Amino acid sequence: MSATPTTEAPPVDGPVPRRPATRRRLVPYWLLLPGIVWLLVFFALPMVYQASTSVQTGSLEQGFQVTWHFRTYWDAFQEYWPQFVRSLLYAGTATLLCLLLGYPLAYLIAFKAGRWRNLLLVLVIAPFFTSFLIRTLAWKTILADDSLVVDALGALHVLDVTSWLGWTEGDRVLATPMAVVCGLTYNFLPFMILPLYTSLERIDTRLHEAAQDLYASPATTFRKVTFPLSMPGVVSGTLLTFIPASGDYVNAELLGSTDTKMVGNVIQSQFLRVLDYPTAAALSFILMAIVLFMVTVYIRKAGTEDLV
Amino acid sequence: MTDTTTGGDVRLTGISKTYGSFTAVHPLDLTVPQGSFFALLGASGCGKTTTLRMIAGLEDPSTGSVFLGDTDVTDLPPYKRPVNTVFQSYALFPHMDISENIAFGLRRRGIKSVKKQVDDMLELVQLGDKATHKPHQLSGGQQQRVAVARALINHPQVLLLDEPLGALDLKLRRQMQLELKRIQTEVGITFVHVTHDQEEAMTMADQVAVMNGGRVEQLGAPADLYENPRTTFVANFLGTSNLIEADVLDTGADVLVTAGGGRLRVPADRCPSAVRKGGKLLVGVRPEKISLAHADDAGEIGADRNRVTGRIADSSFIGVSTQYVVNSPAGAELQVYEQNVERRAGLLPGTEVVLHWNPAHTFGLDADQDIDAGVETVEDSL
Lengths: 308, 382
Prior knowledge:
The structure holds 2 protein chains of 2 kinds. By secondary structure, chain A is mainly α. Chain A contains 13 helices and 2 strands, in the order H-E-E-H-H-H-H-H-H-H-H-H-H-H-H. Chain A has 2 domains: 49 residues; 224 residues, MetI-like fold, CATH 1.10.3720.10. The radius of gyration of chain A is 26 Å and the shape is globular. Chain B is of the alpha+beta class. Chain B contains 9 helices and 20 strands. Chain B has a 6-stranded mixed β-sheet with strand order 6-7-8-3-9-10, with helices on both faces. The relative contact order of chain B is 0.11.
């Protein structure tokens, strides 16, 4: 039944089919073109422009000139390193919290949700239907003094502990580091859950059965099989959370105080209020370099090349 | 082969599994003797895999108990049972190399120095040079052997094999059948093998349980099942049978029946005990037991042989034998396999022939059954 004879003629050599073949070879490049143009105009050119801005000197009145003034980088870093440290600390904490909150949820959706799976996934991305700003402003209400949440945390003496740790101040949560980290965690949680879900969902549940058949308890199965196999999701989830969180300024702006300024806030104010463009540009590049370095080390350490 | 001790028997008592209103396995009693190679044979959906998974602990039985030796393991989770499984999909851990895969079970039981045992296992399955490869770098047959090694290294009381050869092509499958049989003989562990391939079950197993619709239809040694099927399902599922509807004329040492105008004799001890004069009987005979004679040579057939006249509808030459399909008043499409010891001319489609065989090779089945139960359709056999 599989012995249907092939009646198609073999491909003919000669000049006739050559032209379509060349065209076919070019197709991928044509498909790439719109993306490349887009990146050139909206990514590469602004980067070059910013890079040049960062080594300019001058003032708004007299105009800026490229003077290869690299000292701006050092000065900017020296002046704003606490904000850098704060950014990385807040972003790192928020990423860790996202992972701790997101992993169980992604696991539940991938393996235990059954017919509720799609509904739960919709709920995960539902916040995106509302503006980022509005949601962050809502957190202002949630964490406001004498709000239900803050009163409850106070009554449970949680605030005593967090204040002792320096995360909150007295019975205030708003305008403290904890408020900023809460906002970051909330806003970036879906970016953690979705990649985690995708990589967990791909795991063949028969591997769980095999592990249990081979004397691994459910906990060991998770440690030795499920978690290692979900590493691609952990890596991309943490990157998708950490990178934007470290450059974020909205949460610190709306939920924080002057003591919780992150580097994003500094860049924003240098660009838009102080109008010191070189410093702002230099800060942007320093942040980018730090994040790139950390991400590279992280990916090396996580060693996911084999798994992705 | 069978060990004299009974400490390692697998005993299922009244075990069943229902999913909602669907009964996958009807209450079942089964004993697999220690050290035997036991096959659960049946078409897909017959409950054989569910039965296996209940032994492994991957499925909770709705009723009944599972015993390993004298220990009731029904309530033990899979990771506490001295039983290992070779999965149909192999389920090798993709993030570990071959030796880590094989060492997995030993490490979980806290055994630190596994190198020697892993090496021995790799040797046994002839994959010594693949220790540091990842599963996806191996071929299907090699992955299958890793799956066997990963299970066997734990010296389980019972090794469960869930259609482990299903994904392999025919030639490799035959080779692996022999290899698994060799390994089983070498290690002496009880193997419970689930398969839908009757040839596989018969070549490998000491004991075969034929399952159908969540029940064991018949249990026995392969040759016994083949020669003495008790149901039409077993007769048709294991090899091919010619089943002829017949009326019982007389009972005695031989049961005398009539079908399509001819008379046939069936040994009474190969008939169901309920056979009565004037009743119905399904008369069965295997295709290879039948000889073909040209209608003109009918006189040369011994008088003591069962005979059925017919006309050849089709013949196909398949090397060692020729398979004929004969239409007869007694039954349509009777199968005859004749060894090609000598090429015989003249047995072409359309030829009038006489089918004859030794009455001792005839068996009788209860006529109240579906005569086509267990007949493999074309899609099934592919």
